[in-house]
Amino acid sequence: MVVAHARLSPSASKRWLTCPGSVALCEAQGEEQRTSKYAAEGTVAHEIAERCLLEHKEPKDFLGKVMEADGFKFTVTQEMIDAVQVYVDYIYEQINEAEIQADALVDLNVEVHCSLKHLGITGLDGGTSDALLVCKEHQFIIVGDYKHGQGVLVDPEENTQAMQYALGSLHKLGIPREENWTVIIAIIQPRARDAAEPVREWRTDSDYLYQWQDEVLIPGALATKESNADLVPSEDGCRFCAAAGNCPALYDKTQELAIADFAEDKFPEPKTMTPEQKITVMEHIEMIRAFLVAVEKQVTEEVEAGSKDYEDKYKLVRKTTHRKLDDIVFDEDFSPLAEYIDLEELKEPKVKALGEIKSLLKRKLEQNHSKAEAKQILENLIEESTNKPEGGLVIAPLKDKRIAQKTSAQNDFKDYL
Questions:
Q1: Which of 90, 117, 205, 356 is the right S-S partner for 352, CB 3.0 to 4.6 Å?
Q2: Largest Cα–Cα distance of the chain, in whole Å?
Q3: Is 60 exposed, middle or buried (0-12, 13-18, 19+ CB in 10 A)?
Q4: Is the dihedral of CA 10, 13, 16, 17 positive or negative?
């Protein structure tokens, strides 16, 4: 699914502020951001968080529920509940701390549209902040940004996305420039692998944000409109750029890096490289990785569309997937497992992994059946209670053992073949 974003969206601002030419390049190539399963999962987590704050619910109220976002369906797990709980707790803690310690009233605003249209730059429309806490008495705001992803660690300091939310909030609240308010930007990212803490804050003020707006944001936005706007490859900018696989500047940069400090026309073995050579690679590793991933994605899309350019080298195959529990498993009236086990055992203290459920069932079945019978019953139960999702299409060498898949072009014309 393709997601429609503002031309100069806050979430992509780290890219277009660094590489103004990327905006026109993406548009010229028709490259748009596509929704992934991970992004859709984040949307579900955000919806739960929003409903908790607006409807005074608790995250655990959603455990086991089936929710849909961007065409994907998810069963809410304990892991998602635990993550959302961290976010909800943080918001309420900030409110309570201000009201108890400072005897101040704090207004909670959820899913706030922080418009930047007053700046008069087409495409620079602003965005939506997950939570905005406002204390007029002590003149401070807290911009809360929930990140459900566990991959890329998000830093609140100089976070261009959240800074735009803060600027939009100051304008929305009608706070004049002469009043210097305290601004706290909080990134709540409970699942981040490399985070020392799930919540990270950066304290700044409105004076600094307005200065950044005038000196960085506005000039950066205007630069994207120049006819020959610069293409500037960077680690952060290229990572999620939709046009990375077709970017001439990124190609030139990776070529340059490939031969930098190497006398040969190919990379040497890592163990023979000098520390300086390794540093060269390490300093640009994310950029190189982004380029390689983008090229693989581009080739996959071309083959799927019917290109014959790679037919002697590559084919489309399905990603390997693993079985997952069906939603019906936890329904007492319809679950195939209800006859053999108390379904609550599968959810306490959290929803168990499929491997744990199989082990638990195996032990219970062997109490009343022979091992052979127990094994057959278990196999049947797992077949009835799970499904094996179809993996997405990926490119693979012809020698790969997986079955080649039909391309989109072949499917489109299958009635005529």
A1: 356
A2: 81
A3: middle
A4: positive
What is the pLDDT at residue 45? 96
β 199-205/182-188 pair status = antiparallel
Q: For the whole model, what pTM was predicted?
A: 0.66
- Is position 261 within any domain? no
- The type of residue at 363 is R
Nearest alpha carbon to residue 20 among 249, 204, 278: 249
Task: Report the relative pairing of strands 72-75 and 66-69 from DSSP bridges.
Answer: antiparallel
Domain that includes residue 165, residue range: 10-223
The answer to whether the beta carbons of residues 327 and 68 sit under 8 Å apart is no
Element (DSSP H or E) covering residue 335: none
**Residues 6+ away with beta carbon under 8 Å from 402:** 317, 318, 320, 396
* Residues listed for the chain: 417
The confidence score (pLDDT) of residue 266 equals 58
Q: Are 183 and 204 in contact (CB under 8 A)?
A: yes
Residue 156 lies in a domain: yes
Long-range contacts, 364-368 (Cβ 8 Å, 24+): 364/340, 365/340
- Total number of domains in the chain: 2
Q: Which of 201-215, 275-289, 333-347, 380-394 has the highest mean pLDDT?
A: 201-215
Q: What is the mean pLDDT of the chain?
A: 83
Same domain? 214 vs 345 = no
**Domain identity same for 94 and 203:** yes
* In a domain? residue 38: yes
Beta-bridged to residue 144, according to DSSP, are: 131, 186
Helix (H/G/I), strand (E/B), else coil: 68: strand
The tokens describing 79, both together, are 């892991």
Tell me the two tokens of residue 20: 């103004």
Residue (of 137, 148, 159, 118) closest to 10 by Cα position: 159
Query: Is 157 inside any structural domain?
Result: yes
Across-strand partners of 395? 316
Answer yes or no: do 197 and 340 share one domain: no
Average pLDDT of the segment spanning 213-229:
94
- In whole angstroms, how large is the CA radius of gyration of the chain? 26
Residues 98-116 have a mean pLDDT of: 85
- 10 Å CB burial of residue 294 (0-12, 13-18, 19+) is buried
